[in-house]
Design the sequence.
C-alpha cells in the first residue's frame, strides 16, 4: 500500500511526466521532418528506389517504444514507480531504525 504523496512529490512527479511527454513530442517532430527529407531525397535526388523506408521503419520502431514507455508505462503504476516506492520505503525503514538505535541507552 502506498502512502499519499506530498505536494512537493506531486509537483516533482508532474514535472517529470510533462518533460517525458514533451520529449516524445520533440522526438516525433524530428522523426516526421527528417523522414520527409529522406523520402524527398530518395524520390527526387537519388532516383526512384525507395531506400528511405529502412530508416523510417527502424526509427519508427524506436519512436513507438519511446511512446509506450512515456504514455503507457509512465502512467504512475509502472515498474519504475513501484521500484521508486520500494526504495523510498526501504530508506524510511532504515532511517527509523537509525533513530531508534540512537535513542537506546
Sequence:
Amino acid at each position: 500500500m502506498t502512502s499519499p504523496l506530498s505536494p512537493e512529490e506531486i509537483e516533482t512527479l508532474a514535472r517529470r511526466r510533462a518533460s517525458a511527454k514533451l520529449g516524445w513530442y520533440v522526438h516525433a517532430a524530428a522523426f516526421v521532418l527528417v523522414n520527409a527529407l529522406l523520402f524527398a531525397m530518395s524520390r527526387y535526388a537519388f532516383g526512384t528506389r525507395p531506400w528511405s523506408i529502412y530508416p523510417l521503419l527502424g526509427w519508427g520502431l524506436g519512436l513507438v517504444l519511446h511512446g509506450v514507455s512515456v504514455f503507457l508505462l509512465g502512467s504512475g503504476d509502472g515498474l519504475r514507480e513501484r521500484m521508486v516506492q520500494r526504495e523510498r520505503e526501504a530508506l524510511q525503514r532504515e532511517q527509523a531504525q537509525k533513530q531508534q538505535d540512537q535513542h537506546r541507552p
User: Anything to note?
Assistant: DSSP finds three helices and no strands in the chain. The radius of gyration is 23 Å.
